[in-house]
Amino acid sequence: MLFRSLDDDDLFYPNHLAVLVEAAEASGHAVVFSDGCQALYSQRDGRTLVERSVVYKGAFERQDLLVHNQLPVLCVLHRRSCIDKIGGFDETFATHEDWDMWVRLFHQFPYRHVGETTCEYRVQQNGGSLSSTKRADFYRTMKIIHRRYKQWAVSHAETRRAQKRRRSKHAHELYKLGMPVDPWHKIRHLVKRMLKPAKHRSRAA
Questions:
Q1: pLDDT value at position 105?
Q2: Cα–Cα distance between 42 and 124 in angstroms, integer?
Q3: CB within 8 Å of 133: residues ≥ 6 apart
Q4: Residue 3's closest CA among 61, 67, 89?
């Protein structure tokens, strides 16, 4: 039995299931995935298409998944027996639950990439999608995933360096948004807040 997932606002193209099922049956692989298109819709009404581009494209190495997510949930088709072995989504995660499962799935089963765009991931132009409104939780779950699967990264120095760069990049972005997450950024943020009233008092005097 084959399983696939689809979020409420995303879209399977008419050939999606046929393409993936055929690839799974022909190759005998437990996991297959296709390329995915990102569709950007207007912030005015949420229905007017602004831009469509294939951003989830091409095969990747298992090690790449240890750094960051490589594909949205709707691109993947897998056998039920995979879930019986590795378990499903971690329901304690509010974000990145798909990435967490992909790490287990792609590290424990052979997989095949199908070079065909068969689905569409939709986002709002104003950044109202899940991936842009829960940035702090994205950082939190990213750290958990990096730590949880460290056994697969321990012998890959470049993977560990890439993980560190990824965490640093996200932490800096959150700091600029006024949401410090690492100790150094928290200290800098606190000092700035303490100095700001002092500057105002000095100008008033």
A1: 97
A2: 6
A3: 127
A4: 89
pLDDT of residue 174: 87
pLDDT along the chain (205 residues), means of 10: 64 94 95 93 75 88 95 92 94 94 96 95 65 76 97 96 95 83 68 63 50
State the residue for tokens 């639950």. 97
All residues at 6 or more sequence positions from 173 whose CB lies less than 8 Å from its CB, including other chains? 135
Sequence-ordered list of residues with C-beta below 8 angstroms from that of 60, at least 6 positions apart, any chain: 70
Query: Length of the chain, please?
Result: 205
Dihedral of the CA atoms 122, 126, 129, 135 (nearest 10)? 140
pTM of the model: 0.81
Contact at 8 Å (CB) between 83 and 2?
no
